[in-house]
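Milestone M4 deliverable, item 7.
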Amino acid sequence: MQTSPDRHEYPDHWEADVVLRDGGTARIRPITADDAERLVSFYEHVSDESKYYRFFAPYPRLSAKDVHRFTHHDFVDRVGLAATVGGEFIATVRYDRIGADGTPATSPADEAEVAFLVQDAHHGRGVASALLEHVAAVARERGIRRFVAEVLPANTKMIKVFTDAGYTQKRSFEDGVVHLEFDIEPTDRSLAVQRAREQRAEARSVRRLLVPGSVAVVGVGRTPGGVGRSILDNIRDAGYTGALHAVNRAFAEDQKEFDGIPAHRSVREIEGPVDLAVVAVPAEHVPDVVAECGEHGVQGLVVVSAGYAESGPEGRERQRELVRQARAYGMRIIGPNAFGIINTSPDVRLNASLAPEMPRPGRIGLFAQSGAIGIALLSRLQRRGGGVTGVTGVSTFVSSGNRADVSGNDVLQYWYDDPDTDVALMYLESIGNPRKFTRLARRTAAVKPLVVVQGAGSAPQGHAVRATRLPHATVSALLRQAGVIRVDTITELVDAGLLLARQPLPAGPRVAILGNSESLGLLTYDACLSEGLRPLRPLDLTTQASAADFHAALLKVLEDDACDAVVVTAIPAIGEASATGADADAELAQALKSASEQVPGKPVLVVHVELGGLAEALSAAASTAPRTSPEAPGARRPRPSQQLPAPASAQQAAAPDTGTRLIPAYPAAERAVRALSEAVKYAQWRREAAQPGKVPDFDGIDEKGAARIIDRMLSRGQGLTLGTEETYELLACYGIAVRSAVPAFTPDDAVRAAEGLGYPVALKATAPHLRHRADLGGVRLDLADEEQLRRAYAELSGLFGKPEELRPVVQAMAPRGVDTIVRAVIDPAAGAVLSFGLAGPASQLLGDMAHRLIPVTDREATSLVRSIRTAPLLFGWRGSTPVDTPALEELLLRVSRLVDDHPEVVAVTLEPVVVAPHGLTVLGASVRLAPPPARDDLGPRTLPRY
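Output delivered:
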C-alpha cells in the first residue's frame, strides 16, 4: 500500500477480515491514492438510485477532483475505508472531522460527518453495519467521539444501519433531510447488537460449509486408495443429497464421468454453482485450486492437504498465504491438514471426510482439532453399548486440522441455535482466543451442554495460539466458571455426552442405587461419595431379581422425592425361572425403559457387568426399527467389543434418532458416576446462571482519584511496580485499607515504631527469599513489650544476617484469623482474572486456588470463597470459630472493581489477608501498572489476522 503523503503513515492495523451477514467474508482496509481505478470501477457498478442517496442529486460519474478527494486521506481528520472481495471494492465509508459549525476541522474537534456507499449487488449482506463498527473504532482512536450523518428520508436502509447499531442517537428533520447524531463510545446495547450479528454471521459461515447444495472434490485420483478418491467415495456412499463433482486436471479432455460422477479437469468447467470444494492436492498446487474456486464463486473450502504450519516455518508462511488468498475471495477454510466434515441430517447426508462410514444420525455435535482424536470419537460413539448407541449418534462433525480459519469458536456459534444438536462435544488441543471462547461457551452452555477435553501440553505446531501466562489448571477453572463440562479423557467425553444427550438434568446430588449385586451397589455408593454426590443406601434386589422386580424397584425410587437420580446396577440373573441370553437382556431393558417413562423427570443410568446384550437391548427397547432375527440355537453371542459396526446404510435405516428418552449403560460404576457427577454440577451451574447476580456498588470508591494516581505513575514509565505509599493510596481509593508496616533498620528503629503503633506488634523480615515464609522463621508475632521486641530482633539477625539483608519491618498485630491470599492479574489471552486461596505452603503445594473472570458478581464472589478445597477452615472446621466471609467477599468484589475500572492495573496481590471472626486485615499489598493490553472483544468484529 502507498504511504499517505499527508500527515500519517498507512495504518495497517486497521486492516481486517470480517464475516458478513450471509456467512461470506470481506476485507476492510483504508483507502489510499493507489485505489483511484478501483474506486472508479466500483462507482460504475452502483445504481443511479444509490448514487442519488449518497450525493442528494444525480451524480452519474466521479470527477477527477472527486477521485482525488476520496482516495487521499490524512488518516486522522479524513479517513476512508473500503470493503473488498477479490481485491475489488464492494462498499466504502468515509468520515471528515468537523467543528461546531459543520465545517472541516482538526483536533481537538471531536465530531465527524460519516457517509456510506454500497454496491447494489451487495445490499442486505451487512456490509454497511460492519463498516460502521470499524470506522467508529478508527474514529475513537483518532479522538473523535461523535458521528453525524445526513440521510434522505427515502434511504430507509441506511437509516436502519444507524438506528440498529445500538448507539444513543438524536434525530431531527430539516430541509427534507434526516439529521442523525450519535456518540460512538461502545454501550451495553451496541456491544449486544455487535455480538448478536457476530453470532448470526459466523453461524451462517459454518452452515455454508456443513449444508452445501453442491460439492466438488478437487484432486480425485484415478486409482482407489488416494485421499481425494476416498473422500469422493465417502460422499457418494453416504447418499449425499446435493450435486457432486470430481475434479482432476489429469482427466482426459473428453471425459465426462468418473465412476458415475460428473468429471471435470477444473472447477471452472463446472456448470452451475459450487458451494463447497474439498481440496486434496499437494500443497504446492493448492493456490491454483483456490484461485479457480474463488473465481467460480465457491463459498467455502475443506483443505485436507498437508504440508502447512505443522511442517515448519516454510509451511507456516504457506498457511498464512492460503488464508489470505481464500479470504480475498470471500471464502472460509476448514483446515488445512483437516480430517473433514460430516452432516448426518437426512436433508444433507454429507460425509466429506476420511471416515469410511457415515456415523449414525443423532443429536451430538462433535468438534476435534486432531484427526486421530476425531476418528477415535466417531468410533467410540459408533461402538458404545448403552441405550444411546444405535439411536443417538452425531448431528455434525468437524475436524479442523490446523484450524487456520474456522475454529471451535465458529462451530460453537453454529451449534448455539442449531435445532439438530442437543449436546456439543469438543476436543481442543489449543484455544486460540480464550476470552472469546469463554464468552461463547457461557452463552452456549446456558441452552445446551458443552463438554470439553482440553490438551494439557503445548499447542501443536500448526496452531496459532495467543500467549497466556495462566497455568493450565487456571484456564480449566475459568472454563468451568463459564459452564463448560471439563473432562480429562475422550472416554469421559463420550460417557458424559451419552448421558446428557437423552436424560434430563438432575435436580440435585441425591442418588438412589438399586440392583441385583450388593457388591456392585457398594462400589457405586463409594464412587458417588468420591465424586461429591449424596448416595442413598443401595437397594439390593438379590441375584434372583426378575425384570419385574427391577421395574417395581425403579418405579418406587423414581417416585421418591428424596432422590434426584438413579443408578441401576445389573449382573446376569441367577435362578431356574430366570430368562437367559437375549431374552433376559430385552426383558430387563424394557422394564427399565417402562419405569423411567412413567416418571420421566429424573436421570437413570445403568452399570452392567458381563451383560453383553443389555446395551443393545436398551437401544432396541427405544427403537422403532424391526428386531433382528434371533440367532441359531447354541450360537455364541459375540461381545459388543467384538462386533463391527453395521454398514452405514443399515445404521441409518435401522437406527433413526426417534427422540425417545434412552437409558445409557456403562461397563464400570466409576464411569457412570463420573458422568452423573458432571451432569449434577452442570445442572447446578444452569440454575445459578438463570440468576447471575450483580456487580454491587460500594460506598467509598473514588474512581477519578484512582485514575489520577494511575496517570501520574504511568507518566514515569511504561510499566512499574508501585511503591508502598502509592500502593496504599491507590487501594484506599477503593476502600481497601492496608495495615502499615514501618521499616526498622536497627533495634532502636523497631522500638520507636512499636511505640508509635502500640504493642503488641509483629516483627517481619521482608527480604524476597523470606517474604510470606513464616515457616522459615522470619516472623515473630505478639511481641508485647520492648524487651521481647529487642530479643526477637537479635534472633532474626542471628539467623538470617544483617538488617539490610533482612529488611525488617514492624507492624501492629491483627486480630487472629485465617490467612488468605487475594490476587488479580490481566492475562493477554484470557483477560482479567481474580484468584483466591489460603496462605501457606500447604495450599501453594496443592495448587489450591480458585479463579473467576473479572468483573466478578456477588454470587461469583460467594462461590469463589467456597471453591477451594481448604474452604472448611473458613467455616468452623473442627470446632474453630467461623470467620467473616461476607467481609472477605466484599474485599474480592472491591479488587475486581478496581481492575475492571482501570485496565492499567495489570496485577494486584494482597498477602496475607487475615480474616477474623469479625472483619479482616490486609497486611501486605503490591500493585503493578502498565499500559492496558488491547481488548479485541470490545472492538469491531474481525477474524484473526494472518
